[in-house]
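Review this chain:
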Amino acid sequence: MTSLSTGFRALPLPIIQLSLAAVLKCGQSFRWTAYPLKLDPEDASSPTHEYRFCLRDRVVCLRQTATNILYRTVQPDPQPNANQRELRDAETLLWLKDYFQLDVDLAFLYEEWGSRDKVFLGIQDRFSGIRMLRQDPWENLISFICSSNNNISRITKMVQSLSKEYSPPLLSLPTPDGSGVEDTYHPFPPPSALTHPDVSARLRSLGFGYRAEFIHRTAKMLVETHGDSIQPQDSDEPSEQWLRTLRDISTEDARAELLKFVGVGRKVADCVLLMSLDKTDVVPVDTHVHQIAIKHYGMKGSTKGKMNMTPKLYEELCTKFVQVWGQYAGWAHSVLFTSDLKSFALHGLLEPTSPLPSPVKNRKKRSREMTDLVRILPTPPSTPSVSESATATEIACNLSPAERVKKRIRK
């Protein structure tokens, strides 16, 4: 990691392992805000966008080059001292490692999928760097209740409206274009904030339609069953903590728990299982995915009309995709799904060609590269003490604030 004059730190990571432009726009998460940056005509490798995301206690700002993820942490305290800045950036690095699941070698998965599937082989270079996020299960659950009969643009508007309406502002930041305009950032509201009797009516007035009642009743059921005891502002409620425990049980049992909530059918449950509960082989199926299966994978049906998605057909589609792609079938499905979105029709075609590294074919070389990457990322030691001269990684792994963040993001 190296400090940059702009206040960003650099995490070495080739774009074939993570493409922010694709991953943050393909319908996984809906609260990232993208800001175009002024391009340097003399530097074709300079970042084109800045991406911002509001956590409970900070705003994370990201930029990307062909070889690095650039990150910056902003919290309400306007003037942290040097040790506080080191700690904050180290905590953010822990979160980035978890959120983007950087312990998974995506180039290796692409190579495996391409060797098993000619369809994937045909798109993998153009749609490289698409990996599955490891999201907060509560936000993920509500976001995909909003996704019912909806599109990415409208889901994004709903999720952001929900945050502005039911979560107090954390801080305001100038936009990175130098215009002097400030944007205000709100964390995602906790379950207890959506249990009040007037929530459903208010959400309907904001354009949520029938989903308003689903959100209200799901939040209420979650809190009534698993608690909403008073927590520090930057801590999770017991009901949120309970949702994360679903990572530790079987896919079938976790799905059964999710299906108890109002507005959660098989597809929404499977989205949550895949995108926040570590069930990598789960493939969320809808008519769009069914059309892909008919067009490319020999499944029966018509590409001209919608077929009734029966439980039997759903299971047949899931089984087919797992047979094709294996243990990480859900991840591979996300790449195919993204490649078929209209908003990605020109992705990789009109962008300037840059000297990006190709997927590593030599497995020993790839293994060494990923080992070097893991060395860069923080791995918590068992020792509890830390000196004043400790590095940022050591601070993040030992002091209590980082332990709190670590406990929050990975059960």
About this structure: Residues 82-99 form the longest helix (18 residues). The radius of gyration is 21 Å. Confidence is low (pLDDT under 50) at residues 1-5, 352-411. DSSP finds 17 helices and eight strands in the chain.
